[in-house]
Amino acid sequence: MSAEQPATPMKLAVVGAGGRMGQTLIRLINETPGAVLAGAVERAGSPHIGRDAGEIAGVGTLGVEVTDDALGVFVGVEAVLDFTTPGATVEFSELAAQARIVHVIGTTGCSAEDDAKIHAAARHAVVIKSGNMSLGVNLLSVLVKQAAKALGSDDFDIEILEMHHKHKVDAPSGTALLLGEAAADGRDIGLGQHSVRVRDGHTGPREAGAIGFATLRGGSVVGDHSVILAGPGERITLSHHAEDRSIFARGAIKAALWGKGRKPGLYSMLDVLGLNP
Where does the chain bind NADP(+) (predicted)? Predict the structure, then answer.
């Protein structure tokens, strides 16, 4: 009997290949069994255009040239990993739908209009979108939902504190909003109607049932998040500290591999990790 042939590695593309997350993704794809880098995309005019993606990421020549022709790349791969900007992500979602490939979205700061367009694209392609791709944060979101459900709003107030590096442009972070949604789901309320994003001046007493957000920016912090449930005489804090952005890249690669062969639709990391009820 002949030996079983190894499965063909899944062909992945990275958009925003020259950025910090893009380079991290390229390095980790190169180390991941079952995955291979087959495309790298940058914006038109980027100084990285025409360079080898592996050299940009510091892993040597991979034979994958960075290009600004996203559709040309997408038709030759099975999945695209996207940690770019909301506007770019919406465009990529339309192209990924045309190419019928898996689109893994780690981009944060998307508006309701952006999300609607991404949801429309998911009718034709597998889209996996999350405010955070790490295993730890997604497990934390499940715990937050359970805690919020168990501890009623009459006795426990919920505050979410997050800190990121000084270059992050959106606030609250996608992860903070993900955790806020988990808390709201636990209490069977809508986050949009109960969130408090800013406190300044004479605010009056805290509104019962509100979910508060506090945002800190500075230095090189990858990402710190704490969900505080404060009750009379006691306080519970559920926290996650990201020490290396590679945790997000690993999660995104795992999501791409999971999405291969799935039916078109909009999925989350909870689906990938089997944490959805």
Answer: 43
To the question of whether residue 122 is assigned a binding role by annotation, the answer is no
What is the model's pLDDT at position 153? 87
Whether 60 has a binding-site annotation, put simply, is no
pLDDT (tens digit, 9 = 90+) per residue, 46-82?
999 999 999 999 999 999 999 999 999 999 999 999 9
Domain range 10-129+245-273, CATH architecture? 3-Layer(aba) Sandwich (3.40)
pTM of the model as a whole: 0.85
Q: Is 231 annotated as a binding residue?
A: no
Q: Is 168 known to be catalytic?
A: yes
- Render 1-26 in DSSP notation, one character per residue: -PPPPPPPPEEEEEESTTSHHHHHHH
Q: What is the pLDDT of residue 245?
A: 87
Going by DSSP bridges, is the β-strand pair 223-231/157-164 parallel, antiparallel, or unpaired?
Answer: antiparallel
Q: Is residue 140 classed as helix, strand or coil in its secondary structure?
A: helix
Residue pair 131/174 in contact (Cβ under 8 Å)? The answer is yes
* Residue 20 marked in a binding site: yes
Sequence-distant (6+) residues with CB within 8 A of 130 are 105, 106, 138, 174, 178, 251, 255, 268, 269, 270
Low-confidence ranges of the chain (pLDDT < 70): 1-6, 277
Query: Amino acid identity, residue 134?
Result: S
Residue ranges covered by each domain of the chain: 10-129+245-273, 135-242
- Name, in order, each residue with C-beta under 8 angstroms of 131's C-beta and a sequence gap of 6 or more: 108, 173, 174, 175, 176, 177, 178
Domain 135-242 sits in CATH at 3.30.360.10
Question: Secondary structure of 82-117 in the HEC alphabet?
Answer: ECCCHHHHHHHHHHHHHHCCEEEECCCCCCHHHHHH
Q: Which of 210, 214, 102 is nearest to 156 (CA)?
A: 210
- The answer to whether the annotation marks 19 as part of a ligand binding site is yes
